[in-house]
Amino acid sequence: MQHTLSFLPSLESPTHCRYAVQTVRLSRRKSWRSVAACSELMAGQTCNLTLVFKDPFESYLARVKAYTSSQTSNWTQSAHFQPLTDTVFGPPGLTVSGCGNCLLLHLTVPASGGLKQQLQLRDLYRSLEFQVKRTRDGAQTGVEYCVSVRVSGLLTSTSSLFSQPHCAFTSPPSPLDKSVLLVLGLTGALCALCLFLSGLVIYRGGRSFRRCSLLSALVCQ
User: Fold this and answer.
1) Model pLDDT for residues 18-51, shown as the tens digit of each residue
2) Sorted alphabetically, which SUPFAM superfamilies does this protein's record hold (predicted)?
3) Looking at the chain, which runs of residues are DSSP E strands?
4) 77: number of CA atoms within 13 Å, CB side?
5) CA atoms within 13 A on the CB side of 208
6) 4-84 classified as CATH 2.60.40.1180
7) In this structure, are residues 34 and 46 in contact, taking their beta carbons and an 8 Å threshold?
8) Cβ within 8 Å of residue 37, ≥6 positions away
9) β-strand 166-169 against 128-134: which pairing, if any?
10) Chain-centre distance of CA 50, in angstroms?
């Protein structure tokens, strides 16, 4: 698991301000400790507290202050943070493939730093719940579907963000189905052409018959 502290500078803070971070463990609340790597931060930078918040069952506090060569602000304190319950997952890994009239989803837990952190994540969250969001229900052969997934641990109160949509076609129609569709399409086109030609012949024949009748009437008069 990775833990990062971010903060928003005050609108009144000068641009040359620096920022310092301190933390404390609530079970051993003796004194605040400075984070050496986060003692001269600039606006927009973050503080990596992964090594500081290494006990997932512990509760921690963090605080930040701004300072210049001549001024120092008051400390701004964070809310309580417990890695086990307050960690927010990154989106899970997802691949999608077709299987006839269905889709196969291959899901992986969110990546988390190095091997040690991945093993810790696996040990702490032995049971994960995946939620799937899809573009449509049902699955038809030869149709494209898009799927997004997010994950939550049974011990956490928050869920991860949804992954980016991954799209895949179910397996394409079999060659036999394609042949049948092609024959049906050609048959329909030929029928439509025959109807059009028949209508054209009948229309022209009617006009010729009417013209002959008019000419006969004129001759009789």
Assistant:
1) 999 999 998 877 789 999 999 999 999 999 998 8
2) Fibronectin type III
3) 4-5, 18-25, 33-34, 47-48, 60-67, 76-77, 93-98, 103-108, 128-134, 144-153, 166-169
4) 8
5) 6
6) no
7) no
8) 47, 48
9) unpaired
10) 26
Instruction: Write out the DSSP string of 118-131.
Output: HHHHHHH-SSEEEE
The DSSP H or E segment spanning 183 is helix 175-220
Strand partners, 9: none
Q: Are strands 93-98 and 47-48 parallel, antiparallel or unpaired?
A: unpaired
Q: Which residues, other chains included, contact 46 with Cβ-Cβ below 8 Å and sequence gap of 6+? A: 4, 5, 6
Could you read off the pLDDT of 165-187 as tens digits, one per residue?
888 888 765 554 556 566 667 77
Residue among 34, 41, 35 at smallest CA distance from 16: 41
The domain locations on the chain are: 4-84, 93-169, 175-221
Contacts of 74 (CB under 8 A, 6+ apart): 65
